[in-house]
Amino acid sequence: MHFDTVIIGAGAAGMMCAAHAGGRVLVVDHAKAPGEKIRISGGGRCNFTNMYCAPENFISGNPHFPKSALARYTQWDFIELVDAHGIPWHEKTLGQLFCDTSAKDIIAMLRKLMDTAAVDLRLNTSVSAIQKLNHHFSMTLHHSDKEQKIETTNLIIATGGKSIPKMGATGFAYDIARQFDIPVTATRAGLVPFTFADGRFAEISGTATPAKITAGNATFEEALLFTHRGLSGPAVLQASSYWHEGDPITVNLTPAADLREKLRNQRQTSGRKNFTTELAHHLPARLVDHLSTQMDLSGNLADWSDARLTALTDTLAAWQLHPNGTEGYRTAEVTLGGVDTDALSSKTMQSKDVPGLYFIGEAVDVTGWLGGYNFQWAWSSAMACASHLSDG
Known about the structure:
single chain, seven-stranded mixed β-sheet, seven-stranded antiparallel β-sheet, 21 strands, 25% strand
């Protein structure tokens, strides 16, 4: 049985590409249902894109690589598609767009587009014995106890990365790349909580506060959440993508206030009160209690000199911590690294050395920030590939 295009992976990128590639298309996935990561994303509401999506919101060994795809199929194009299907949505914060009702609306939209294009979708199906023979690929499909040999002119790998293995994520895309001598950059968990070996924040687990988190050369200002295992929250997840094992992170617990001046003013009116009581007007009380075990916060506010206030507020604005690691692929929202972009065309996502072989979505060494950027990369890279196929 011959197909024009076979897409392995029925996630965001795979379904989007299948719906627009043209010709006779087969989509294969080992999962029981398509779009499972879409379904669980955004708390079940799917943060499907970001209004402020731009190339600088992505990490890649070649930061120029995503520019072409992102420019040719933008967030506004996907929003137009969502609107055309009558899916209600809203902006939450920082340009993040979510479905009003359910992430299942996005899956249903993609399924409808695939049905319109007469795409053949096969679930609970695995693939083996992929080979390149002259101008086509051959492979074996496995479903239950049945096997089927198929051929295709174009083979698209859209199986994502290693993040959230309980959802079926594997390194399949990287295995296929290496089979065809396509380089794969080092991979690691991204958008993932930090862990600390001593469980140092367990006693204040569940406490959240605004913060600026700096890792590497990047700083993010959003919520910080203390957990039994370490640190989480949007600011931490963002910074984790720029962190490397062994490096420290810097936490600014007072990003939006001149805490020194506020405490000086309070000293005039509430000087007889405990310093920790007054500090708790600006930081969560449980966090203040925790900090008091790490540093000297004793005495009444009136006892604190300007120099002592300055020393403390400087410390709180540049609190250096040393994570022992992250929670890894188990909870990571994305996989950093992947199929080397130097081996792919930025306009078509096709391998430069293996005609007819394409990689799209998270499998590629392009990783977006938290907030809908990775979904936009899925839509944009899928459309770069599909447009090339439909034009051909």
